[in-house]
Amino acid sequence: MNRLTLESQYKKYPKGWPQFVIGAVVVTLIIIIWNITVEYEGFTQRGWSIVGVAIRGLFTPSWDVISDMSASGLLYMLFETFAIGFLGTIFGTIIAIPLAFISSRNIALRWVNLIMLAVITLIRAFPSIMYGIMFVKTVGPGAYAGVLTMTIGSVGMLSKLLVESVEDINPGIIESLDAAGCTGFQKVRYGMMPQLSSSIISNVLYRLDINVKNASVLGLVGAGGIGAQLIFAIQDRRWSDAGAMLWGLVILVLLIEYISTKIRNLLATKS
Amino acid sequence: MLEDIVHIFFPRTYTLGNGKTIREKFNIIPYLVIVFAIFVFFCAYFTGTNLPLLAERGWNFFDILHKMIPPNWGYWDTMQKAMLDTINMSLLGSVFGCAIALPVSFYLSSNFKLNKTYLVTHRFALSLLRTLPTLVLASFLRMVLGIGALAGTLAISVFSYTICVKMMYEYIETLDMGAYEALESTGASRFRCIWGAVWPQVKGFFFSTFLYCFESNVKSAAILGYVGAGGIGLNISGQLTLRKYDNLGLVLISMTLTIMILEAVARYARRKLVTG
Q: Is residue A143 within 8 Å of A84, Cβ to Cβ?
């Protein structure tokens, strides 16, 4: 019988050098990529002088923007951003739920759901800014184009997540409803919806978070929301205006995140 | 029929045979549904949502797609550097962000019983930073660092850092700390304890978080060029104002393909990581 000695155990200790070689290769690659990509030409001394002014400006938000109640005021733009994200989520959910049923393996025919899955993958692969540009061309600039963009983005993600949860549902319940002679609609309504509702709601709330955050970016292509004004304020160096909008956006997003986390926890404890 | 509808909102009262009256339970959900519907309609009015307009002009959407086909393949030479930059920026940003996030996330997990005040303030600062879109961060950094990929890379790093730290500390808090305590009782240093007992447990999750960051960063990096922070966005906005839709078509095709390939690679790598 082998005796356990310190030396024999040390021999079993895993060798360190393969990891070291992999690490060295990765670091070298990163340095090469850094040198290809990053240029320092744009960097000047003037940049540093901006930092102090900018930070002071960001922490002294301008009250003119906050108290302005017209269409260029903070509250209007924040509500518009929220409304774009909210409506995008609602419309997206309305489209995504039937789409998810059609594209899941245990409900529809095989060839139907293969086609639908391909469509969903294609929708997801398009970057959302391209949808923004196309919808601005289609329905004109404004918040409506933003709503449509958010709808498409939500459909892509929600239907992918929902397909997974539809394929996970317990088939026994459907079979027993089948045995009781229920129609297809009744099977969906009484056999599936009760199992799915909590996962649908939590996915939708998660998407609402993302949508409100993304709605602020869309302004750049002319699709409404606070984004355009915020970025123009930064580029024009109106730091205190930018500060007001930044704090407004931060508070809006935090508030929505807080509420949706609360509702999701409530659902998780209930079921 | 009408009575049934009314009774959804106003609970019925029954009189039993022994003269006792019973009220139905009050249900608040119908009222909530109505408030919700009114809010949806108000939002729709506010944003100018107009479904007939979409039905009427919806074909324009495909009109633009039609103009993009066939794409102008000759444009590839001009845009390949920007395309490569976009991928490189998101790769570099994810690597730096996640590399810094790894040690910090150990400090921010409450199960190592570190300084509570530091933990709460750092987490709060992170959640403030996380609410900012990458684009806003990039446009701010671009003012400081000048035009180029440096600002974009840094913005992506900050964003990846905030996401990665949050996901990591939430995961680390759910871990089994028995192995850590066992190592601690042998007198190992804190670094040794983490290296021996915690890192093997979080390794797979860390790399899959990194892949997730990389994947989502490629999508968000596409827009950064709009504010001059490097990458393909500059080409998108430039060709759009010139109405060169065939060039735009090539940009779109290459981006879509890149994202699809990266997603497939990430899915494969993640499956490998999960199984071991």
A: yes
